[in-house]
């Protein structure tokens, strides 16, 4: 403990010594570190002493432990034979431990001895250093007075420095006018490097003189202005040289091709000026002085001029306006694309070699072109663009700019990564343009559809038949015009984005839905106008066939358009709209077919009126004429496309049968005897076969059933032909069971035509049939519900 206290006191004395002002000597630091090391050694020695005091306690614990171990070893009688063996083993362990302990204690003692020796030497060295520091401090205090006595010498040195600077620049000072003239001549001859060298010499002379004047008397503005005035022409030279440099920079694309050396000279001059600027700014931080006109910042100016040059080059590519050329924007954008691509290729291959690597000139130029293009695109977007111009602009901005035709060109890679370039227009501007485009396109499509329909309507009244397609079906140009227009707009939208393409398709189908409603109304109006004068238009039937065929063409075109431009996952969203269009087209076609059949039956009306009359019974050929007329019309109807032609044939067949049955129900004839009934019934059966043959012929290849309708006529003929009145109820009940929509008035009219049924018989048959159950055939299509009996009530018919 005493040794430790002594060491602590010694270190405190050393610390008091290092507080002197000049205690930065390396030797002092070394001795202090040695002292700290010795302190550590002493602490270790103190620890050893503590260990010795604790050994006695350890011995007592060891004896107790040994007793426990011996007790554990000698628990059985047979273990007494091994006592000697246990003793030798424990003796070896003890000897080993004592040897290690002695070695450790000896090592610690040697360390303490060495530490004490070094500590003694360090104390002596510290005393020597202390004395040296006292001597240095004394000398330093004595020198202060000597420094104050040298003030005059200091002033003389400053004055000498100024005079030396004046003498050094004396030659330049007297030759300033001559150097100015030489520099001016060099600038005019285009020898820019030599001109800049002389200009630098002039500036150096001026700056040195002004600096010395500033050092001598910074507040003497008169002398400063005198120097500045004397070198005034130099500033004009600097400005003239700068103009020449900026002219070269403005024409950098031409210069780098024709005379790259000149561009390199310009860059060297700018680099010189940058170094001078940095040196002058550093001196300003130290002295507060900076020459007039500094910093020139020519490098910054050069990049500003490059940026303005690029902007002017982009803006200057617009050669036309909308008034002189409707394709002005397309031409403008194409010129921009070509110029920008060519400029960047030149910059990559030639310009990069003329600038130092740290300028990174190609990337900076790429950024300038991108910014200039973005500005120009925003200006164009702000104009009142038409729909096709919006498409051209967005296509160029969103697709062309990053395509292989421009920034994605392989010759620009890897320096240019088209995918990393920002959009030329913000998403907000793009959305505004798309919104405007969709609004304009909506108006245009409505106008185009209206104009297309008006043009088609003019064709309907022509005296020439409509054109036929390759299969011979009549058609007009309306579907082709409409879907060609849709196709063009969808192709244009697809160039911009998939999302816009989908929106345009939805718009087209939406407008198509509205258009078909107008088309249906116009077709109905066409029919009504024709009914006012059946001689006009001359080709009414042919153009109505064309209208029907157009419906099928519209259906096929809609499906084709959706398959080509609509994604599969979007089909469900349009299913309702598609179904609605199909319904409208089917209505148009159905009404067209109906109007054509009306045309047929208006011609058939006189012949239908002859049916079931005395004239008919005596041998009228009304049915033959009806069949010839129908067949003649259907020669024209053959140019109706299959889906509607089949419907047309079935409807004609049904209407012929309905009109025939209606003629029966009108009671134009009442057979007087069985002979007439037989003759009339056979004639009806014969004519039913004529109808069957006719419509089987007309329906050939269509696979439709032409048998059932004619069987109705034959079934009615069988009722009329029946000779045994007692079986009349059975025959009529069979008729009713086959055709359950037959009403009481139909039965009464049929019995009246027979002419032999009494009032009671009619009443009995009708009442009995009303009470009987009806089991209709599920495949039967009702036909009697369309046939009305003359307004006489059933009671009068029974009479």
UniProtKB/TrEMBL annotation:
Pfam families the record matches: Sec6
GO cellular component, one term: membrane
InterPro entries, sorted: EXOC3/Sec6, EXOC3/Sec6_C
Keywords, in A-Z order: Acetylation, Cell projection, Cytoplasm, Exocytosis, Golgi apparatus, Protein transport, Transport
Family assignment from sequence similarity: Belongs to the SEC6 family.
Role according to the record: Component of the exocyst complex involved in the docking of exocytic vesicles with fusion sites on the plasma membrane.
Protein's name according to its UniProt entry: Exocyst complex component 3
